[in-house]
Amino acid sequence: MASERQIYYTLGHKGYHILVLTSDLFGLICMIQMRLSPINCVTFPLPGEGPEQQLLKPNEWSYCDYFWADRKDPQGTTHVTGFEVLLQKQLKGKQLQKEMAEFIHERIKIEEEYAKNLSKLSLSPLAAQEEGTLGEAWTQLKKSLHDEAEVHLKFSNKLHTEVEKPLLTFRGDNFKKDLKKYDHHIADLRKQLASRFASVEKARKALADRQKDLEVKTQQLEIKLSNKTEEDIKKARRKSTQAGDDLMRCLDLYNQTQSKWFEEMVTTSMELEKLEVERVEWIQQHLRQYTTLRHETDMFNQSTVEPVDQLLQNMDPAKDRELWVKENKTGEVRPVDLDI
Ligand SMILES: *[C@@H]1O[C@H](CO)[C@@H](O)[C@H](O)[C@H]1NC(C)=O
Ligand SMILES: *[C@@H]1O[C@H](CO)[C@@H](O)[C@H](O)[C@H]1NC(C)=O
Ligand SMILES: *[C@@H]1O[C@H](CO)[C@@H](O)[C@H](O)[C@H]1NC(C)=O
Ligand SMILES: *[C@@H]1O[C@H](CO)[C@@H](O)[C@H](O)[C@H]1NC(C)=O
Ligand SMILES: CC(=O)N[C@H]1CO[C@H](CO)[C@@H](O)[C@@H]1O
Questions:
Q1: Residues 262-266, mean pLDDT to the nearest whole number
Q2: What CATH number is given to the structural domain containing 284?
Q3: How much distance in Å is there from the Cα of 298 to the middle of ligand 3?
Q4: Which residue is closest in CA terms to ligand 5's atom 1?
Q5: Could you tell me the pTM of the whole model?
Q6: Which of 5, 133, 198, 309 has the most CB atoms at less than 10 Å from its CB?
Q7: Is the CB of 259 under 6 A from ligand 5?
């Protein structure tokens, strides 16, 4: 009797499918139809086929939703997997973080040199002999340069320990090793997927051959071109069924591997997403520390000139004159008219 079976193999989670249509009408003809769009051995739905796909994390622009396909590199010669694009982002982030540390290092050097210059100038003997309240104010002004130098030195030290070092040491050498591990893990699964895909193709061809063979034998029997017996046909049919089962088995293995790859892609890309969020937050935190320290410097820096302002306010030119006159006066008896 005529029987018709339709077996849908759903691959992956998003309705990617291989449709195996086994229609053994009179037990003779098997039709296989593969309805999928494999790209580099990953099966995607054909446009308009399969159920509508929803994003795994709608509205989040999550890594796990946007890196399923491979991309041709700019030269167009080799393919870069979506996962490799994510890995490259991580490596670049690491490099940029290092460059930021380098930049802060240069900033520190300027600050140190500036402090050294101020400190040196504060020791200058210029106008050291100024006297009185003006002399005091002048001495304080020179001293303020030394205090200011201290402020800048402290700033540079804090920049080093609280900004440069954290930026430099965030994620040590293990980070690249970890990325390599992720890379190998996902690449292995892709390789497995490719080999399973090849098996499916091979099994599909084998089944097609078996079916052709069965068809030819059946026709030959019908038009009595051959003395093939029912036995031969049964044998051919058995082999065809076997080839069909084999294909099913290969499909199932492919299915499992793609499913595994899919899951690992989701978990690993979300892991990378988390790492990126952490990196950005870490840098943000330390750049904020930079601005805090810089503000502090201004405030301390202000305080170094406050005593100078104070002394300038306290200056008393009259008193200075008095003091100077007392010390250097040459005689207070005034001359009188000549009298004979
Ligand atoms: C420090 O002084 C030297 C000259 O003595 C000058 O070349 C340099 O630019 C100064 N540096 C800073 C940061 O002011
Ligand atoms: C079938 O035909 C072949 C030659 O075409 C012959 O050798 C063979 O003996 C035949 N077998 C039967 C069962 O008639
Ligand atoms: C504080 O230091 C900055 C340099 O970092 C300098 O330009 C500024 O004039 C200083 N301000 C005072 C009040 O000393
Ligand atoms: C004024 O008197 C002081 C103290 O005796 C002295 O050090 C200074 O050299 C004198 N100034 C002049 C111009 O003689
Ligand atoms: C039709 C079919 O075999 N689907 C399977 C594909 O693979 C996943 C994961 O191994 C299974 O859960 C499905 O049942």
A1: 97
A2: 1.20.1270.60
A3: 7
A4: 9
A5: 0.77
A6: 133
A7: yes
